[in-house]
Write a structure and sequence with these properties.
With about 675 residues, this protein is an alpha/beta fold. It has 17 helices and 33 strands. Helices cover about 25% and strands about 30% of the residues. It has a 15-stranded mixed beta sheet, sandwiched between helices.
Length: about 675
Amino acid sequence: MLKLLALSASAIALLAADPAGAQGITRTDSFTAVFGGKNVGHLIAKTTGDVTVIDFDIKNNGRGPTDAEVIKSNADGLPVDWKIAGATTFGSKVSEGFHQEAGKAQWEDSTGKGQAAIAKPGLYVAQAGSPWGDGIIAKQLLKAPNMTMAALPGGTLRLEKGETLTVQGEGGPLQVTRYDLLGIDLTPTTLLLDAKGEMFAEVDASSIIVRKGYEGEEVRLRKLAADWSAARFVNMEKEVAHRYAGPVRIRNVRLFDPKTSSLTGPVSVVVRGKEIAAVEPLDSPPTPGEVTVDGAGGTLVAGFYEMHAHLGQDGALLNLIAGITTVRDMGNDNAVLDELIRRMDAGEIGGPHVIRSGFIEGKSPYSANNGILVDNQQAAIDAVRWYGARGYWQIKIYNSMNPAWVPAMAKEAHLLGMRVAGHVPAFSTADDMIQAGYDEMTHINQFMLGWVMTPGEDTRTLFRLTALKRLPALDLNSPKVQHTIQMMVDGKKAIDPTLGIHEQLTQNRDGQVPPGAVDYLDHMPIGYRRGAMKAWVDTSAPGDDKAYREAFEQILRTTKMLHDRGVFIVFGTDTGGSFTYHRELELYQRAGFTPAEIVKRATYDSAKYTGQDQRMGSIEKGKLADFFLIPGDPTQDLRAIKTIRMVVKDGTFYYPSEVYPHFGIQPFTTAPAVTPAR
């Protein structure tokens, strides 16, 4: 057992409240966490001598991490002892420790124990630490040659310097400098450091953790973070997006045909500009000035639809090169998404087409902070009208909405030509929302909770997830279950189950490769890999492990029952898409879909459902050139979709093997051979 692990979680909590007996504290650093303009938590670091005690707590949308940390540093400020205890966003326990001395480093986290011989003290990257750890890393990198250092347990960390700006707050004007921290995860972490190299803020386009007293800078800094991230992706787009001047002939490919749910014989597909110019016999001769792509007998599939996204700039390109050419965004910062869509549509950065959902939430202590928050029925109707006037495809209703307002909201949405989807608001049921006018239910847990809850239980909290433990005792043939399913059938309602997020919630365990990540985890950066091997929920109570595992089987049985009864199921993840979207599709085989049915639903059926089948969803002359190339046949083995060689969106060509290294990902396959125009 590590020396540091002798500190219990309760001892750390006590230290956090009263470090060093509340005597001799030399410095307190306080930060406020802001999401969507709302204070959602804090980070407080109290330093006494060489020991820093951290209290970190965030609660947004009824959930968030809680950490207590004790860090002992050497004279150079490098941690030599580090203990972390608390809970993750969804409640699983955290117990992490690191210790180094006498040329040896040891650590223990959810992935297990590790150690390394070191010639000099090393820079440890915590698995479940607070943003304070990023500040420690940045300060050490500032002193390192080329601002680069090897890290423990592995990998290399690098700091890139950006611009210096002046911020205003209670402490007076302050100069801070932007730095991007690279090497931990898929995308950089953006930090602002003061002149002493101390952390001032950690920021992205949607949220910020900022030094107390400077919360008034939140909007400006988030906007700057979006611009900084955009500049990175603009530069990346220049390197990886191929826009050919003349026609492009993709030779020797078979097409997935949604009319027959099978593959065609070998053909050539010609792309000119944004559209498919022709689908020709394989032996058709090329015309002068064409670029030729050798399809090598592979399969072209129309671009996938990810139907439950919360799209951000960092994930836009990763979704695209996973074959996802269209996403349905289910709730976002409206202004941030506006700008992201503008950049993608202008070709400044790579990303999918976006179908927008207007997020509407009721005001409560548990509110999510996206979209529009309302506190009365007229405000809710006005929010519907706001989205309708801006061309949104549907509205999405969330947990804190007063269920009594939903019928009027649904009536207004339908009057304006929009669909209605959403969570089941607290203290109501799926039956209530179907009657109130929902066209589509969001998340299978939201749909099923009414069968296992008792009146008064609050789904605005983590209860909406932990209550899944009750599902194994549920009789799916009971009248209450069958009544709800029949309401879905009779009302021709759809459902967005998001199976993958429920698999992760119920099946992920500390130290184990998640079942949905076995095909890609080894290709990812070390920080991503370690984060994936962490349980989402606390399964330590007797019987909980078994209950959660069996709950997912009940979810699959319910999804199959809905599918067998003809309820339309849309495929979305709520976990960022990309790699997790491929797993999402895989899981529907366990719910009774064939591979061919899955490919058709993810392409043509989704295009038709969203009213886009005249331009998207299949590979035909005159449609948008949105498709991807794989070596295998996904109608026989759905896993073929995981080795994508080329993606085309609006006639722009991307080769994943060129893109993935920009994210620290090892490519999964090679690019096809391309012959320039002659």
